[in-house]
Amino acid sequence: MDRSDRSYPAEVETVTTSEAKARLNALLAKVAQTGEPVMITGRGKPLAVLSAVTAKTRRCGQFAGVVSYRDDFDEPLSAEEIASWEAGAT
Question: How far apart are CA 20 and CA 50, in angstroms?
Answer without folding.
Answer: 10
